[in-house]
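TA notes, week 10

Several of you asked for a full example with nothing omitted. So below is the full record: C-alpha cells for the whole chain, then the designed sequence directly under it. When grading your own attempts, check the secondary structure regions first.
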C-alpha cells in the first residue's frame, strides 16, 4: 500500500517537468500547454484515488481503533477538497451567464482558496504523523535516512500551505514540495514495513 501511494506522487512531478520544458524548448506553444494540462488532469485524479485507497487499506483494525479512525478520516478529508473544487468550477461555468454577476463567484472562490488546501494539507500531515507513530511503536531499528526523512516530510507539509497561497510562485513550487513530501513519507513507511517484516522472520527462525 505504501508503494501504491508514493508512486503516483512521483509521477505527478511530470507536470512541472513538462511545464518547464515547454518554456525552455518550445517557447510556450499552445501544444505544450495543452499536453501539460492533459497530463495534470490524468495524474492528479490518479494520485488522489490511489492515495485514498492506500491509506484506507493501511488503516487496519490491528493498528488500534483510534489510529484506524484517524487514517480513514484523513483519507476521506483528502478527497473532499478536490471534489468541492470540481463542483465549484462546474458551478461557475454553468451559472455565470445565467446569473449575470460575478460577485457570487467571489463568495464561492474565497473559501475554496483558503480552506480547501488547508483541509487537504492537514489530512496529509495527520496521515504521515500516524504512520510515523507506527514506526516509533514498532521499535524497528532503521538507518538515519529512514528515521529523518519522514520528519522532514512533515515539516515540508507545514510550509506547503502558506506557500500555496502565494500567486504564481507558490502555485508552482508548493505542489512540487507537496508531492515530494508525500512520496518520501510513504516510501519511508514502506522501508520500515520491510525492515519489520525481516525482523519478524528472523525472530521466527530463532
Amino acid at each position: 500500500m505504501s508503494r501504491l501511494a508514493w508512486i503516483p506522487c512521483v509521477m505527478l512531478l511530470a507536470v512541472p517537468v513538462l511545464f518547464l520544458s515547454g518554456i525552455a524548448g518550445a517557447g510556450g506553444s499552445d501544444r505544450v500547454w495543452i499536453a501539460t494540462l492533459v497530463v495534470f488532469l490524468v495524474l492528479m485524479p490518479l494520485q488522489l484515488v490511489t492515495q485514498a485507497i492506500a491509506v484506507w487499506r493501511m488503516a487496519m483494525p490491528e493498528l488500534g481503533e483510534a489510529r484506524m479512525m484517524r487514517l480513514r478520516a484523513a483519507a476521506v478529508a483528502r478527497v473532499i477538497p478536490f471534489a468541492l473544487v470540481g463542483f465549484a468550477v462546474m458551478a461557475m461555468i454553468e451559472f455565470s451567464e445565467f446569473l449575470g454577476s460575478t460577485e457570487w463567484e467571489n463568495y464561492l472562490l474565497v473559501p475554496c482558496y483558503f480552506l480547501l488546501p488547508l483541509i487537504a494539507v492537514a489530512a496529509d500531515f495527520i496521515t504521515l504523523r500516524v504512520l510515523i507513530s507506527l514506526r516509533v511503536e514498532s521499535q524497528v531499528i532503521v538507518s538515519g535516512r529512514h528515521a529523518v526523512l519522514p520528519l522532514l516530510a512533515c515539516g515540508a507539509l507545514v510550509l506547503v500551505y502558506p506557500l500555496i497561497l502565494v500567486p504564481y510562485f507558490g502555485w508552482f513550487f508548493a505542489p512540487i514540495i507537496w508531492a515530494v513530501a508525500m512520496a518520501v513519507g510513504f516510501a519511508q513507511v514502506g522501508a520500515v514495513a520491510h525492515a519489520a517484516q525481516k525482523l519478524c522472520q528472523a525472530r521466527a527462525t530463532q
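The mean pLDDT is 83. Use that as a sanity check on your answer.
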